[in-house]
Here is the input.
Amino acid sequence: MRWVMKSMLLNRRHFLTLSVTGGIILLGKQTNISFAQARKEEKMPYTAKDYSKLLGMEGFSETLLKNHFTLYQGYVTNTNKLVDTLGPLLKEGKTGNPEYAELKRRFGWEFNGMRLHEYYFENLGGKGGIDKAGKLSKKISESFGSYEEWEKDFRGVGAMRGIGWAVLYQDTLSGNLFNCWINEHDVGHPAGCTPILILDVFEHAFMIDYGLKRADYIGAFFKNINWKAAEGRLK
Ligand SMILES: [Fe+2]
Here is the structure.
């Protein structure tokens, strides 16, 4: 399609401009630059984070994890492509075009595919269970009656048929916690809530190691939760 070709040309020009100005440095190292910052600073591309420290995690083969990292990098690439493509369409006054509308719809899917993977990988790599005296454990007990009740519900959400995510969310207005099913990447997010613990239940997250035994994968997930990272997200 013509606009895709044009976008690729713009990306190439932009890349060269960044190279000249020294902005290319950002491509070579991990950065936590936000999209707002990126837009301000001439739309420098967001860089995929490195989760190779998770390799060797019990219950997750190297093949599975490396495939998963590659899939995540694809979401980062496509999110950057959408930012690069939508900007010129806006500048050219093409907001009424179907291309603009469909790419806008696509943005939430790609962006959430990227960000949910980051939350997921970052709440992995831990050892041991939740700190029962910690604030997250207390909050879970307040919202669900007990940690055990919460875990039963969270495992149940993760085992639901379909592809998506199980997410423990905190409602930042009431402070209450909810376990939610997110369909694919973009459907079902409760507005204004903060993700606390994320479990990927797309088939790519477990089939290489577990086949159809999703419950066994969820068991392996629970053995490797980084509870400190999850607790750090609590408001
Ligand atoms: Fe995934």
